[in-house]
Amino acid sequence: MTHLINDNNKAGLKKNMTESAPTSLLESLKHLNAQQLRRLLVEHLTKQKLGLYWESNAIERDSALNANVVLPRLLPDASHTPPGVTHHHNLIIEGDNFDSLRLLRATHAGKIRVIYIDPPYNTGNKDWVYNDHYVGKNDRWRHSQWLEFLYQRLTLALDLLTSDGVILVSINDENRARLELLMDEVFPRRRLGSLVWRTKDTGNDLSQRFSHVHEHVLVYSNVGFKFNGRVTDRSKFRNPDDDPRGDWSPQPLTKAHTYTERENTYYPIQDPDTGYWYPCDPNRVWAYASEKILRLRSNGDETAFATALAALRSDTIEQLITKKLIYFPPCNPCEVKRFDCKKDLVAAIRSGNGPVLPKKKTPLLREDLPDLDFWVGKPIAPGRPSRKEHWNSKPEDQRLAPLSSWIAGVNEDVGNEEDELYAPEVLRSSRGGVATDEIKNLLGTKAFSYPKPLSLVQGLLQQATRPGDIVLDFFAGSGTTGHAVLALNAQDGGARRFILCSSTEATSKEPDKNLCRDVCAERIRRVIATNGYDASFAYLQLDKYEAADVAFEATPEHARLLISMRETASVPVDPASGAVHVVAKSGDWLTVLCWQATPEALDALAALPAAYGVARLAVFGPRPRALATLLQKRCMEANTYSLTDALLKGQTSAKAKKTTRTSAVAASASTLESDPTTAGDAA
How far is it, in rounded angstroms, from Cα 302 to Cα 295? Predict the structure, then answer.
């Protein structure tokens, strides 16, 4: 039975189907009665099958999927903590990325501006560990497992992006179509486009004489995202005609349309100062309308002419000439051509001596053109007019060239467009094989298969990020994304932060394998040491508890780390000490954790406003009501919050929260009964 993303099963069908996925289509149908089978068949035959389907009911359930609460635990020995560092702003999270994303949804929802991932390509070449084993080419449900695996994680990633955030996903040519349809479902109406990266220079499939030498980077973004493009070089702005408005750059007057496609913009232009005429390229017509042509096609109807004129989104060529925004290149009178009769003009065209484009020598006049008679007797000047764009015509931050969709090789010759000033910014990247050497040079071994080159990821992040952005990679692999963030910060002085999520990729055959610790984290550690980067990172492992057990099993350190990640997007270096810990300061507020409402803890809370220059406290504790009562008696202005609720925020459903809250209240009541310090206040 096929599966459509976001297609909810009927309520009646749900009651009769088992919670665990059946092993086959027949098994799933055994539990349905005749009426349900008829309804299912009608739906199957009538439903529009536009989209992506996969056999979600037939595949083995992803063992990583669970509803547990995920809490972080810091491993100091695996972290990198230079002297003087009090908080880690870069994070490496060890664990299944499904769990990592659920943790980040609780701490970083709406805070990640850029996500870059290089997921497994599902080639069957031991590039993807699923449910404790590698998925091979002969696995019947290989593609369905892959799609379900990605779907579960991408839906979580969606919640992490800022309102102007973007996700970039590398994929090979074979699986691009499947992934793009999946992304369309998870990120509806957010497709920006894709980039093409040439991975190698030589072919490798001699049998078919057709070789795939490229991969893709899919781009999906929220409203408001824009690539950085390229800042315009002011040196290309000059003033050869002493224009009083200052330096300007010549912009093309043409568009990539033929005269048959755009008849309204195929017309001659005359220099009002010299009287010289300039033909229009029949293969690349003018970009601006002409009032003369509009009036001619209105057949004397002034209303129709005024309507056509008002509908234009830019100036006409006549208006541009009047404003002296058209530059006519100077020429010697001897270079001006004049043909006294049509016979002479045709002869010149046939011999190649007619008007041509200056550089390309493309003929501007041909025998088949409808306006050939017009040019008899006209002085035809060489060169091509251009539009002036003055440097001060727009703010400098808006003078940007767009990003090209082609990622070229480092030494690849990329021809510029006719508009050199605003020709697209072309990213350049090393070929795929270079990345293996980059890791080998750092770690001394080929520690990871199919890594991405540093130049590729760094170029993408240079275009997609701003200096203070958080960058997430939840398929971190060898840690190239973290490496790229550090290199980019060193290049432009930015303060970008990375979050890398990587699994151990341990299997039953390799139970001690730890890709996250031994490759990803170790690479970042050596990159920092080798290049002298001023950076650190926290290495986190994940603990999982059932929601009802959080009030009993979670430690103060869990709470401190999670709330710090949520409030400050960082992890404190020093372990928790004492009953009170300051998390963050925001304006007039100070966020604090209080483990126990002891007299010593209350004294410490009372001293915080003066010490930090704040007026109010936001205190998280296990017994918020009792704590609020105690603080009121000390005339302290504070808001108190449940520590258990804070741990559950963003991780449990409303039903689970209700059940857990009841358990937590019972636990608090039990604790109050045995705590002489707060028993009286609770009463």
Answer: 8
Q: Is-contact 1 141, C-beta < 8 A? A: no
Alpha carbon distance 648, 444 (integer Å): 43
Which residues, 6 or more positions from 332, have their beta carbon under 8 angstroms from its beta carbon? none
| Amino acid present at 495 | A
CATH superfamily of 69-231+401-539: Vaccinia Virus protein VP39 (3.40.50.150)
The b-or-e profile of 351-373 (16+ CB within 10 A means b, else e) is eeebbbbeeeeebbbeeebeeee
Give this prediction's pTM: 0.77
Confidence grade of residue 507 (pLDDT, cut at 50, 70, 90): confident
Question: What residues have CB less than 8 Å from 291, skipping those under 6 apart?
Answer: 309, 316, 317, 318, 319
d(C-alpha 101, C-alpha 96), whole Å:
9
Domain ranges of the chain: 3-54, 69-231+401-539, 239-391, 550-682
Q: Which amino acid is at 338?
A: R
**How many helices (H) and strands (E) would you count in the chain?**
22, 28
**What 3-state class would DSSP assign to 297?**
helix
End-to-end CA distance of the chain: 59
Break the chain down into helix, strand, coil percent, rounded to 5: 35, 20, 45
What would the two tokens of residue 501 be? 């999520």
- Show the beta-strand stretches assigned E in 575-630: 580-586, 589-594, 616-621
- For 275-332, write each residue's pLDDT tens digit: 999 999 999 999 999 999 999 989 989 999 999 999 998 999 999 999 999 999 998 9
**Residues of 603-635 as b/e, b for ≥16 C-beta within 10 angstroms?**
ebbeebbeeeebeebbbbbbbbebbbbbbeeee
| Beta carbons within 10 angstroms of residue 388's beta carbon | 20
Going by pLDDT thresholds of 50, 70 and 90, the confidence category of residue 674 is: very low
Q: Which residues pair with 386 in a beta bridge?
A: 327
Please give the full DSSP string across 194-213, using - where no structure is assigned: EEEEE--SS---TTTT----
**Model confidence over 243-262: pLDDT tens digits?**
999 999 998 899 989 999 99
For residues 182-199, one letter each, b for 16 or more C-beta atoms within 10 angstroms of the residue's C-beta and e for the rest, the string is: bbbebbeebebebbebbb
Which positions ≥6 away from 122 have C-beta within 8 Å? Answer: 128, 135, 142, 143, 146, 175
Distances (CA, A) of 383 to 317, 355, 575: 18, 9, 73
Among candidates 680, 567, 676, 588, which has minimal Cα distance to 638? Answer: 588
Query: How far out from the chain centre does Cα 493 lie?
Result: 21
662 Cβ partners below 8 Å, 6+ apart?
none
What tokens appear for 357 in the block?
């484009």
Amino acid at 621: G
Euclidean distance between CA atoms 49 and 529, whole angstroms: 54
Please count the other Cβ atoms lying within 10 Å of the Cβ belonging to residue 56. 19
Identify the CA nearest to 288 among candidates 263, 317, 248.
317
